[in-house]
């Protein structure tokens, strides 16, 4: 069993003297990190243009960034996940990793995604997903693995969606990802959503429990703007990130609230509901990897993935 004391090992590290710090500032970095020790909040900004798709390198960087905050910033108790692209939280798995995959790289890629699940779902940090853009497939997984999900309600020009839509690509969601959806929205809702590859707009996502809160531009609270500004690295992406300020402010409020809860009690409560599934992943990790690699390399699945890419290219040309 993964115990609170085991998770507490992540908290070892020297206390820093600064209160706000942007750990990364280069616009080209896959994950940009900001720290607000005075309120116990960190922010990780996904930054893999154009769609934050999950390559092996992106997965590794997500895990590394989570562990970096856990191990080196003991005052930080919560972390916000956000995107540098206002229109896309994450498009899910990088399809290039799946089409005609390198047989040596494929299991390593899948292992890196499993590790993201372990590190994010089992983090000692309270995790808050701020979803301003679309979150299909594994993008939805990243959000579901968090403790709290805030989503933009949408506007005239942009209505984000979220869901595990793998069947639209001609593949199936991995068992542990589908089971996470079932734990999040209920068995029957998940059964239908997985079969149909449903992408939920914000209000529907709220109604079934896929997200916890939706916010509009009208709900923006400027009182937290300075704190957000301090968390976001100073580079040419800052304006894009701040376009999502209403969602980020709502996420910051929740993250700051989580940070005030006694950490040992909060982590113990988290593990009451998550430990079993983390242990199952660890125990079945090799089996899950073998199953995925065998499945995705089947000719029928490869054909479906190629057709999906062709359809995507055709749709882009029409626009």
Give me the secondary-structure topology.
Layout: H1 4-8, E1 20-22, E2 31-36, E3 41-46, H2 56-72, E4 78-83, H3 105-121, E5 126-131, E6 135-136, H4 138-144, E7 148-152, E8 162-163, H5 175-185, H6 187-196, H7 202-208, E9 213-215, H8 225-231, H9 238-242, H10 245-259, H11 263-283, H12 285-296, H13 299-318
Parallel strand pairs: 3-4, 4-5, 5-7, 6-8, 7-9
Antiparallel strand pairs: 1-2, 2-3
Strand order of the largest sheet: 1-2-3-4-5-7-9
Number of strands: 9
- Count of separate DSSP helical elements: 13
The end-to-end distance, rounded to whole angstroms, is 52 Å
Describe this structure in a few short sentences.
Helix content is 48%, strand content 12%. By secondary structure, it is of the alpha/beta class.
How would you explain this protein's 3D organization?
The structure is a single chain. The chain has 319 residues and is of the alpha/beta class. Helices cover 48% and strands 12% of the residues. It is built from 13 helices and nine strands. The protein has helices at residues 4-8, 56-72, 105-121, 138-144, 175-185, 187-196, 202-208, 225-231, 238-242, 245-259, 263-283, 285-296, 299-318; strands at residues 20-22, 31-36, 41-46, 78-83, 126-131, 135-136, 148-152, 162-163, 213-215. The strands form two sheets. Strands 1-2-3-4-5-7-9 form a seven-stranded mixed β-sheet, with helices on both faces. Strands 6-8 form a two-stranded parallel ribbon. β1 and β2 (31-36) form a beta hairpin. The longest helix is centred in the last third of the chain and has 21 residues, at 263-283. The N and C termini lie far apart (52 Å). Residues 1-19 have low confidence and may be disordered.
């Amino acid at each position: 069993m993964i115990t609170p004391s085991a998770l507490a090992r992540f908290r070892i590290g020297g206390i820093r003297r600064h209160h706000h710090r942007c750990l990364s500032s280069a616009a080209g970095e896959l994950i940009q990190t900001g720290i607000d020790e005075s309120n116990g909040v960190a922010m990780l900004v996904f930054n893999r243009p154009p769609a934050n798709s999950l390559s092996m390198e992106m997965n590794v960087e997500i895990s590394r960034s989570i562990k970096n905050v856990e191990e080196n910033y003991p005052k930080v108790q919560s972390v916000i996940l956000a995107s540098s692209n206002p229109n896309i939280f994450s498009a899910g798995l990088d399809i290039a990793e799946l089409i005609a995959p390198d047989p040596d790289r494929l299991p390593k890629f899948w292992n890196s995604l499993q590790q993201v699940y372990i590190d994010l779902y089992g983090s000692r940090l309270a995790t808050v997903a701020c979803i301003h853009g679309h979150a299909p497939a594994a993008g939805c997984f990243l959000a579901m693995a968090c403790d709290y999900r805030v989503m933009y309600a949408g506007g005239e020009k942009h209505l984000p969606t979220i869901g595990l839509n793998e069947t639209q690509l001609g593949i199936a969601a991995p068992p542990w990802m589908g089971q996470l959806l079932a734990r999040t929205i209920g068995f029957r809702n998940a059964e239908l959503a997985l079969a149909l590859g449903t992408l939920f707009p914000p209000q529907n996502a709220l109604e079934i429990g896929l997200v916890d809160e939706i916010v509009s531009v009208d709900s923006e609270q400027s009182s937290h703007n300075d704190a957000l500004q301090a968390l976001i690295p100073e580079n040419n992406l800052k304006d894009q990130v701040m376009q999502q300020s209403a969602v980020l402010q709502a996420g910051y409020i929740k993250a700051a609230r989580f940070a005030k809860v006694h950490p040992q009690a909060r982590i113990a409560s988290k593990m009451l509901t998550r430990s079993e599934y983390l242990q199952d992943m660890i125990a079945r990790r090799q089996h899950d990897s073998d199953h995925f690699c065998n499945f995705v390399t089947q000719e029928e699945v490869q054909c479906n993935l190629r057709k999906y890419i062709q359809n995507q290219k055709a749709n882009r040309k029409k626009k």
